[in-house]
Amino acid sequence: MRVVLRILKLSVMILLFGGLVFSVWLTFIPPNGLLSATAYAAKMVCSNVFIAKREADAVIRTDVAFALPRIVKRLNVNVDTANQRVEATYHGLFAERYAQYEEGRGCTLASSDEVPHRAAPASLPGKSNALWPVGESAQLSDDKHLPAALNDPALQGPGMRAIVVVQDGRIIGETYGEGFNASTPLQGWSMTKTVNAALAGMAFKDGKLSLDRKNLFPQWAGDARADISVADLMAMTSGLKWSEDGDSPDPDGLENLAHDAAAFARDRPLVAPRGTKFNYSGGSSVLLARVWQNAVGADARAYPQERLFKPLGMTSAILEADPSGTFLGEAFLFANAHDWVRFGEFLRLNGEWNGAQLLPPGFVDYMRSPVPASDEGHGPVYGRGQLWLGPGQGFRLPADTFMLQGHLRQVIAIIPSRKLVILRMGLTREDIGYSVAKLLYAIVAACRSYE
What we know:
Low-confidence stretches: 17-29, 116-124, 246-252
Strand content: 15-25%
Largest sheet: 7 strands, antiparallel
Oligomer: single chain
Radius of gyration: 23 Å
Shape: globular
Number of strands: 16
């Protein structure tokens, strides 16, 4: 019996010591994966609570649980409404990460000792009852075919949050998921890339940047990366090492761990001669943002609002930045559905809005021009302005179809020949077989009667 008691006592001591060592490890050297998870939770809750005005519990149950299903129940997320700050920890003790909201600029990952900045609320224009795009009123179709397509659950897909159809400059159909409406800001994920490319285009128009500019960063001097051009970044043909695989460290490091996302992407090694290989890369988008910000200079922080969002009336749009001030042009633009389709309509109109040419003449055509290296045997899938080409992806849509696409089945399809812009946004798994193709086909078919 004494031997048994000693063994039990020793086992308990080993377990206690092991638990202590494990706790010390998590406290002082938490693994990157855990830090990335708590950072994601803090940032996602912060943006959706303070930008989208959603309830924190709903965001945790849906958006956070969707991305972190294995550990969401072990995460503690605390929202400090007074200081507009969110803290996320593992088991309430470990891997603490913070996200801080700033009016008009969204949420940024912050350290525990940073003093919250409490800016005065931004003054935004009031919403008009005029027809969209001047105001927010829709001119909905009374044809039964379009509403039938928009409200078909199989076409909507699981987790649908917004579908909006614009034809000839008017909203003719829209529907929203439970808990969402036309004024709810939604994260565009990689649709942000195309907006970021348009901002670079505005820097071209302002004479501050050019497609052929090279020697983009001093850190590239003296090696082959100095030959990478702005055009290479836009076309995703920089040759820099990058992986969009969710299991790789690159995306986590870029969005959730790196204080300076551009520096993280900038320091990737070159693995192919620039211009020769297509590699879809959030790192290229962040580098493009840093390049146009450097070119614009002191006005860069206000540039998206002043040059793009305000002229288009995108009053809900907020492009978030990393702690260093670099815009996260790969994924972090929040805007409501009406504002997202404003941007789509802007591209359909070749960069013109209210009679003003905001983008260089011909620039949207350049954005839509194919990247030959993106052809995997069925035609190029990607355009030179960080957008997708319908024919190369096999969509049975008019040949001039081009798209903004984002994680979790975000899409804006632009079909100039049909004067159509179609938006679908949601929280939809990408491994369940759902495709937006059938929705787009049904909408295009229903809209033929309006041509």
